[in-house]
Write a structure and sequence with these properties.
single chain; Rossmann fold; hydrolase; AB_hydrolase_fold; BD-FAE-like domain-containing protein; GDXG_lipolytic_enzyme
């Protein structure tokens, strides 16, 4: 499904053979907001969730230098295409965790965000100059505070912060700092630190991914037929 004229403005639906869950899940890929990283990173996760009976969507969005405002606009347009009633969980990896939380801050329809090694504190990521100043590259002329998830909390959606101790791409201190912000602001959240690196979260055979799936059960399977 295309939600705009640009080649990267699309949302792919993965339909379960039999729907056994309530609502829907949207996968948002990472890649430090750079164009060379695509929604292919989320395909295996979307397929796995659909096989478990969950209506699942995999988002592609415009990326690249100065893309802060357009990626949020894209995510909001894509969310409007999801017609399932019931809870909506966004699962975002790395930069996708940033966009998932940003989207939830603007759309009350989102029930839960699962951040997988997410860039939830852009100020800290900027200070650490992660991935060759990727935050500055993505921001362009945009104001950091306007797209920094921790500065937009509290919001109605619960944030589940998953991170790996051995993450060399997004240091675990990002997750811990985000959880500190959440606690101070009264943001509903859960922090869970696992063994593993940055990419274990997007491997459907990993125990890290299985932890993400289990996080869906209280919302999406309670009362499901």
């Amino acid at each position: 499904m295309h939600y705009g004229a640009h080649q990267d403005q699309w949302l792919r639906f993965y339909a379960p053979e039999q729907v056994t869950a309530l609502g829907a899940v949207m996968i948002i890929h990472g890649g430090y907001w750079r164009e060379k990283y695509t929604a292919q990173l989320g395909e295996a996760l979307a397929m796995d969730l659909a096989a478990r009976g969950i209506p699942t969507y995999n988002l592609e969005y415009r990326r690249g230098p100065g893309s802060a405002a357009q990626m949020l606009a894209d995510a909001r347009l894509a969310l409007a295409l999801i017609k399932e009633e019931g809870p909506i969980t966004l699962i975002g990896h790395s930069a996708g965790g940033h966009l998932a939380s940003l989207l939830a801050a603007h759309e009350e329809r989102v029930t839960q965000v699962i951040s997988q090694a997410g860039l939830l504190d852009l100020q800290l990521a900027k200070t650490l100059r992660l991935s060759n100043d990727a935050v500055d590259e993505m921001l362009g002329d945009a104001d950091l505070s306007s797209v920094n998830p921790v500065e937009l909390w509290p919001m109605p959606a619960r944030v589940v912060i998953f991170h790996g101790r051995a993450d060399a791409d997004v240091p675990v201190k990002i997750a811990r700092r985000a959880a500190d912000h959440a606690a101070a602001l009264g943001q509903q959240h859960t922090l869970r630190i696992f063994d593993g690196d940055h990419f274990s979260w997007i491997d459907p055979s990993s125990h890290q991914w299985e932890a993400c799936v289990k996080q869906l059960y209280p919302l999406h399977y309670k009362g499901a037929r």
